[in-house]
């Protein structure tokens, strides 16, 4: 029978694939040994990026590129977990969008540590309870996550990668829509689906809680309640989806940063994040920023935060295109230093797709 023949073919392909996967893992483990001898980091975001790009170029279909990416994410995750007890701290609890971002970056095989605050993520990495940390830094609708910026003003840790995660909001409950009279979620999340709620759930009470995961837990135990959270929370807590994609702005995206002990190596498409302070005098910020124009460097972001040292003194957080080791960036940063009371390179890392 033709079906049997085709299934035999699949069996023999699978046997090749599994052999090749293990062969690949053995090479990764050898590389890991070399790195340990040299005292180098096991996880290398710049090399991972090159692997993903190579796979995309090799893939002739019909396998979609997203599927090839997801498969390779897990292949690399499994190898990393075998190489070392890789631990990733993230702003939890489980099933938050930060958890989702962390899993997109590191896969399911590594160990995760859920924390309840952003500063705890930084502490875990600093005291080496975790190898890397994942924190939210900015949402396209809501703006900066100020707690994260404030941590960067003083941390010795480095940004070694970034992730953009489309935020799709989901209404979850095990009770039918017409029985819902109370919705739990984070305050910011209500802000992101205000119009949908007004149109579809006009008489429902909104109750803000500290995380979308907490919202799901409360929705499960409260009669007549639902939660707005991620689809991942629906799987993890076994709650039904009542409505999907209820955010008012399609394209609602959050940017997350991976923090670790070291910068990433240059890839040719990098971003550098810095923090600096300037003297309180006319034109100080203008003079500082003019170094980027002079060296033809594109600035992609600026954020100011109170310094927390002195009233009305500010720190400026700036992202620029390029790597701190690129000659023109290095030159601009040297020049910038001369205009600043303080200047720290927070990290150079592969630029992620938005
Ligand atoms: C194998 C390496 O180490 C890790 C594993 C990778 C992989 O599985 O391809 C890629 C980068 C690193 O995170 C390497 O640096 O080449």
UniProtKB/TrEMBL annotation:
Pfam families: ACT, CM_2, PDT. Residues 87-261 form the Prephenate dehydratase domain. GO terms for molecular function: chorismate mutase activity; prephenate dehydratase activity. The record marks 254 as: Essential for prephenate dehydratase activity. GO terms for cellular component: cytoplasm. InterPro entries: ACT-like_dom_sf, ACT_dom, Chor_mutase/pphenate_deHydtase, Chorismate_II_sf, CM_dom_sf, CM_II_prokaryot, G/b/e-P-prot_chorismate_mutase, Preph_deHydtase. Its EC number is 4.2.1.51, 5.4.99.5. It catalyses: prephenate + H(+) = 3-phenylpyruvate + CO2 + H2O; chorismate = prephenate. SUPFAM superfamilies: ACT-like, Chorismate mutase II, Periplasmic binding protein-like II. The keyword Isomerase applies. Coiled coil: none annotated. Residues 273-350 form the ACT domain. It is found in: Cytoplasm. Pathway: Amino-acid biosynthesis; L-phenylalanine biosynthesis; phenylpyruvate from prephenate: step 1/1; Metabolic intermediate biosynthesis; prephenate biosynthesis; prephenate from chorismate: step 1/1. Catalyzes the Claisen rearrangement of chorismate to prephenate and the decarboxylation/dehydration of prephenate to phenylpyruvate. GO terms for biological process: chorismate metabolic process; L-phenylalanine biosynthetic process. Its main location: cytoplasm. Residues 1-87 form the Chorismate mutase domain. This is Bifunctional chorismate mutase/prephenate dehydratase. Keywords: Amino-acid biosynthesis, Aromatic amino acid biosynthesis, Cytoplasm, Isomerase, Lyase, Multifunctional enzyme, Phenylalanine biosynthesis. It comes from Pontiella desulfatans.
